[in-house]
Design a protein that fits this description.
alpha/beta, 9 strands, 10 helices, two-stranded parallel ribbon, globular, 7-stranded mixed sheet
């Protein structure tokens, strides 16, 4: 499907259908993803999309997996670092009001805040513990029109790039404009260049990397 046809798709599910048709599903499982809860998303004053690389071995609908994780104590998705940290960042960004919400509050409310987010992987299939940079970059380049259209259809206010800034800038949104430290914009969407949420560093440090840079941007560019 050429770029013009992809750009004319105006429904998220139809885009994923078209993407899956192009995908080599005889070799790889296609992991659908997107808005976790349409009800919560529509009610959220600040809509935050997280863009990550790929799932680690998981072959499933990511939205369903995250939704189960939020109501099931035994879920491996919530026991891992990634989703818990994403939830904390989501709490901070959606509750920012000129002051950065405390990390303690973010830890307490991260799970409930995860209902409000959208969450996508650039590669819609499972990888391993470490992403092969060369094959991943080639994949993103091939499917860049689909990734870009998915972001446009989700239509967030903020995009958190969890270790994905370089491929997004190179292949998906080369028009990103640098605003200040770790902050870029395209149209009215704010893109935050963050470490991957599974990075081997303190959770509080990752939280403040996201929130401090967003806070500095808001202070410098408030109307």
């Amino acid at each position: 499907m050429d770029n013009e046809k992809i750009n004319k798709i105006d429904c998220h599910n139809l885009l994923l259908d078209a993407w899956e048709e192009k995908f080599p599903t005889e070799k790889f499982h296609f992991n659908r993803d997107g808005i976790i809860s349409a009800e919560h998303w529509d009610k959220s004053d600040v809509k935050v999309l997280f863009i990550l690389k790929e799932t680690n071995k998981a072959k499933q609908n990511v939205v369903d997996a995250i939704s189960r994780a939020l109501v099931t104590k035994s879920s491996g998705w919530w026991r891992g670092k990634v989703l818990r940290r994403v939830g904390r960042w989501a709490y901070g960004l959606t509750n920012y009001s000129g002051e950065i919400p405390s990390f303690k509050d973010a830890k307490s409310h991260g799970k409930s805040s995860t209902w409000n987010i959208a969450y996508i992987n650039m590669r819609k299939t499972a990888g391993g513990r470490r992403t092969n940079k060369k094959t991943f970059s080639a994949h993103v380049k091939e499917y860049a029109p689909y990734i870009k259209r998915q972001v446009e259809l989700i239509n967030p206010d903020i995009v958190v790039l969890g270790g994905t800034f370089k491929p997004v800038k190179e292949h998906v949104f080369p028009e990103l404009k640098h605003i200040c430290k770790r902050i870029h914009k395209h149209n009215d969407i704010v893109f935050i260049n963050a470490f991957h949420p599974a990075a081997i560093t303190k959770s509080s440090g990752l939280y403040h990397q996201v929130m401090d840079n967003y806070h500095n941007y808001k202070k410098q560019h408030s109307a």
